[in-house]
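Hi again,

Forgot to attach this to my earlier email, sorry! This is the prediction with adenosine-5'-triphosphate bound. I've pasted everything inline since the attachment limit keeps bouncing my files.
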Amino acid sequence: MKKLLGLENISIEFDKNPVVKNISLKIEDGEVFGIVGYSGAGKSTLLRSLNLLLKPTSGKVFYNHENVTNLKGSNLKKFRKQFGMIFQHFNLMETRTVYNNVRIAVDKKKGEKEKVVKQRIRQLLETVGLEKLANKYPQELSGGQKQRVAIARALINKPKVLLCDEPTSALDPLNTNTLLKLLKKINRELKLTIVIITHEIDVTKAICDRVSFIDNGELLALGSPSEVFINNTTSSIQKFISFNEVHARTLPYVKNKFGVHGKQIYQLIIEDENVVQPLISNIQELFSIKTIVLAGGIDVYGSSIVNNMFVIFQGDRTGVKKTLDYLLKLKVKIKQHGEDEVQE
Ligand SMILES: Nc1ncnc2c1ncn2[C@@H]1O[C@H](COP(=O)(O)OP(=O)(O)OP(=O)(O)O)[C@@H](O)[C@H]1O
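Structure tokens for the complex follow:
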């Protein structure tokens, strides 16, 4: 894949207050790229610098290898047309039908024939599954349907990039799922690059090829969802995940109730082909080590399948040591569980 967007040492301040701090990253043509972090981390501000809705205080923005940071007037307008945008609260016009909410966004300057425009709107409404609701008004639609109108509207001028600012935050889990599937479908079928802001780890796991984790204006991690959320030991990322992971709440109870020391608990991160290997029974056969599984769950992180397990090994010290060596050789990632947070 080739690089489509690039930020180089971007900083953004509001009234001398730094909100984005020296961030550099590249977004590839055709990928789904996530920007993740707590509320107030600077995600929306960063997103808006990509299409220069916000000009950075310092640093450079690249599009197709061209430095676009200082574009002005008609060149800036032309540049922005490469982007469509959707938002958490849909921003539809309540007095217009679904069809007209899309129609109003058509770039008139292109001078396209009405027939061509009509055909494209119909086609887009079909893509987002709303062809039968073209004459309805926003108040007659569910949240998920409204967001799909917003997607059709954002795509009407055939942008190269779709910027999504918390597109699922106002939706229930069912609608979230449908919307994520739709985003993935348009990413593939229209070869659209998608940049999506979210504070929900499940959203990134479902559709992102790569994610960036932003905390307090800084880029703390960048990589595949499993690299960023499972293999990264930065404490603010671990805490972020613990919102979603039951074991962060349950393991302290196990430790207190049964007098288990934190360091007896190992987190095993078993990925891809190892997921279907009989590792636990191998350990028992080879080293006479018994395994108590406290928690475990298999999940899909982007293109990786990961079994994230918390275990206690029972047996002599040499056996445990051999077990750890054996697992490490198989590229299982191992972390010893600390008292308060997971440590390498
Ligand atoms: N136009 C602005 N003027 C002044 N301060 C702003 C402006 N836009 C954002 N901020 C401040 O910058 C900080 C980061 O805001 P931003 O919206 O980028 O964060 P976020 O990570 O997207 O959070 P959220 O998910 O809550 O929107 C916040 O403290 C916010 O108040």
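The pocket of adenosine-5'-triphosphate is lined by residues 14, 19, 37, 39-45 (CB under 6 Å). The two ends are 33 Å apart (CA to CA).

That should be everything now.

G.
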